[in-house]
Structures are given as C-alpha cells and as structure tokens.
Specification:
By secondary structure, the protein is an all-alpha fold. It is built from 14 helices and no strands. The radius of gyration is 23 Å and the shape is elongated.
Length: about 280
C-alpha cells in the first residue's frame, strides 16, 4: 500500500506485465494488421555495415554507404514520429533502418524504446538485450551508450514491477556513468516504493546536487515523502514550500499529512514529562 501511495504522490502509475515472449501483445506492429518494414521493403539487410563504418570506414563500399545513408534517414524520421507520439509509425521507421543495415545500433535501441511505450514489453526487452550485446561488441569502451541502455532496461523492469532487476540495471548504469541523474532519480523512486526511506533520500539528494536534472522537482517531492516517513517532517515541509514557491503543484493530501505530523510532534514535545 505504501508503494502505491508514494507512486501516486509522485504522479506515477504502477503496472504489471509479462516479459516472456508473446506476453502483453509484444508482437511487431505488422501483427496488428499493419505491414511490417520487412513486408514493405523486401530488400535483404546489409549485414555488418554499421560495424564496418565504426572499425574500417575506409573499406566501406558504395552499397554500404547507400544503406547507411538510408538507415540514418529512417532513424531520423523515426525519432520525429516518436516525438509526435506516433508510436507505430516510429517502430516501422526504426525497423526499416534495420532492414537496410541489420546492425544499426541506434535503430535497435529505438525499437526497444518504442515497443516499451507501446507496452509490448517482451519485444522491448529483447531489443534492449540485443542492443546491449551489440554495443559491447562494437563499441566496448562506450560507457555512456551502455549506461543508457541499462537505464532503459531498468525503466522497463520498473514498469513491470520487477524491482530487483530494475535496481540492478540502474546500479550498473551508475557504475558506468556515476553522474547519470535519471538513474539516481529512478533508484530513489524504487527505494521509496520499497519503504527504504534513507536510501531513497540519498539518491534524491544526489539527483538534486547534479546541475540540470530534468527530475529536479520530482526528486524534491520524493525527498519530502522519504523525510516525512522517517519523521523529519520539518525538512519535508521545507521541500514542499520550495516547490510551491516555484509554481509547482503539491499534493494537498501530502501537505495535510505532513502538517498534521508536525502538529502532533510539537504537541508531544509540549506535553513531554519534564518539559
């Protein structure tokens, strides 16, 4: 119950899902009646062109260059579709890029992100796992890229309430990139759901210390909840007042709960024997 209340205060939704193949309708868009990229473009994928571009660009053939150019075009169009929330179109474009170049890593990650948003969790996880394997093989020193994939996987596991795997994914991302603010915030949120108030506060503090965090205000709310649960009501209240002063809407129920706790604490101190 406390996990649900914490998530509600942060404006988040808990859900469950099946990560097994075929679970939660994780088929490709074409299985819902739309044509897949493969069906629309029967050209066989050019194997290894992305790897050749990274390792031996001087050996790229004209066919390689044409395929890579086409894959980049579809990738850019897919990202635009994603920004417009046209998720099936985005998935189709990402897959078209992979039709042209079967190891085009950015598109493989994009497929995972899109299927995650489509709640096709099994397909999303498979794409992330393939992306991680490909990243380690093609660019073993690219820590930010690998960390980002772990972050995406952690978000997927969290959405599926697979909290241990989510925490492991976020921790791995932070081992690779210690100042990755979304991973700090995500860990704080998961610890909050599990009632690990001190651990949650630690992660929210780190999120707030890092400049430019997109999760700054949500981390303030999370820290307020954690401090409230630990009995640090005055600190929690300070965070809520900071948010209100900066034009952010704060949960009335959370404010009422903290205000009541502060009054009860003052009353207890007032009537303490010997005071």
């Amino acid at each position: 119950m406390r996990a649900i209340l914490a998530a509600a205060a942060l404006g988040l939704v808990l859900t469950g899902c099946d990560l097994l193949p075929g679970g939660d309708g994780d088929g490709r868009p074409g299985q819902d009646g739309e044509q897949t990229a493969q069906a629309q473009d029967p050209t066989a994928a050019l194997p290894g062109a992305f790897e050749r571009m990274l390792t031996t660009p001087e050996e790229l053939t004209p066919q390689d260059r044409d395929a890579l150019s086409g894959a980049q075009m579809h990738f850019n169009m897919a990202n635009e579709e994603l920004r417009q929330d046209r998720l099936h179109k985005a998935a189709e474009r990402f897959e078209r890029a992979l039709v042209l170049v079967n190891d085009y890593l950015p598109a493989m990650v994009g497929v995972g992100r899109t299927y995650h948003r489509l709640r096709k969790y099994g397909a999303a996880l498979k794409s992330y796992e393939q992306s991680l394997e490909l990243s380690r093989r093609l660019q073993p020193g690219n820590r930010p890229q690998e960390a980002m994939i772990h972050l995406y996987m952690g978000n997927l596991y969290a959405d599926c309430e697979r909290y241990e795997e989510a925490i492991t994914s976020f921790q791995t991302a932070l081992e690779l990139v210690p100042d990755m603010t979304p991973a700090h915030y995500a860990l704080g949120h998961l610890y909050l759901e599990q009632g690990e108030w001190a651990l949650a506060t630690e992660r929210f503090n780190r999120t707030l210390e890092l400049d430019g965090s997109p999760d700054y205000y949500k981390a303030r709310v999370g820290r307020a909840i954690a401090n409230h649960r630990m009995g640090n009501h005055a600190r929690a209240w300070e965070d809520l007042m900071f948010l209100e002063q900066n034009g952010m809407q704060v949960s009335d129920s959370l404010k009422a709960s903290i205000r009541t706790a502060m009054k009860e604490k003052r009353r207890g101190e007032l009537f303490r024997p010997g005071s």
